[in-house]
Amino acid sequence: MLCYGDSNTYGQTTANLPDDRYPHDVRWPGVLRQELGAEWMVIEEGLSGRTTVSDDPIEGAEKNGRTYLRPCIMSHKPLDLVILMLGTNDLKIRFNKTPGEIAMGIGALISDIKSMPAGLNGRVPEMLVVAPPPTAMDLKDWSGVFQDAQEKSRALAAEYERIADMHEVHFFDAALVVRSSDDDGFHLDVAAHLALGQAIAQEVAAIGWLPQEQPGA
């Protein structure tokens, strides 16, 4: 399975660590890998600052999640499952997006994945859309960058669920199990990574997904 996301998939820390990144076994995809066991290969594709579908005029065009999605999917195929957790960076004031527009960006990524025969035997991989948790009300030093993000972030889950239903893919609201750290207002702390990884593992198990056997397996 492929976990495609931003800094909260990359494992950006909320505290000053030497490389500003949590270790493999602390990040939620690493927790997910441990929870699911050897049956699944969990691939981490997180990038700090990644948006759904927008070039970043300050951080660079490489932050556009849509631009990199296709080569990423095709380089890792065959895939059984793609997990999408993006949207927090779209809340930055410089993008001036509504929650509905951010959700439409997720919808564009879903459509792109459906257009690629990246599953076994030319099938489309299953997809799970994860709505990121809302920002904290106090965004500390980031309050100017994320101006008005607090209210918008609290509307994302409903918009994401609507888009997921429209595209007939699975949905999970991360806010059911985690909250953004008070340290900076929008990243996950160690406890949140653990809780999210465990919760997504339960989602995978509850839905009944099993990895498909590849030829020669």
Describe the protein.
By secondary structure, this protein is of the alpha/beta class. The protein has one domain: Rossmann fold, CATH 3.40.50.1110. The protein contains seven helices and five strands, in the order βααβαβαβααβα. The protein has a five-stranded parallel β-sheet with strand order 2-1-3-4-5. Helix 3 packs parallel to helix 4. The radius of gyration is 16 Å and the shape is globular. The mean pLDDT is 94.
Order of helices and strands: EHHEHEHEHHEH
First-residue to last-residue Cα separation: 17 Å
Write down the CATH class.
Answer: Alpha Beta
Number of helices: 7
Major sheet summary line: 5 strands, parallel
Q: What structural class is derived from the secondary structure elements?
A: alpha/beta
CATH superfamily: SGNH hydrolase
What would CATH call the architecture? 3-Layer(aba) Sandwich
DSSP E strands, number: 5
The largest beta-sheet arranges its strands as: 2-1-3-4-5
What is the name of the CATH topology? Rossmann fold
GO molecular function: hydrolase activity, acting on ester bonds
InterPro entries: SGNH_hydro, SGNH_hydro_sf
Domain SGNH hydrolase-type esterase: 3-193
Organism: Roseobacter cerasinus
Please sum up the structure shown:
By secondary structure, the chain is of the alpha/beta class. It is 35% helix and 11% strand.
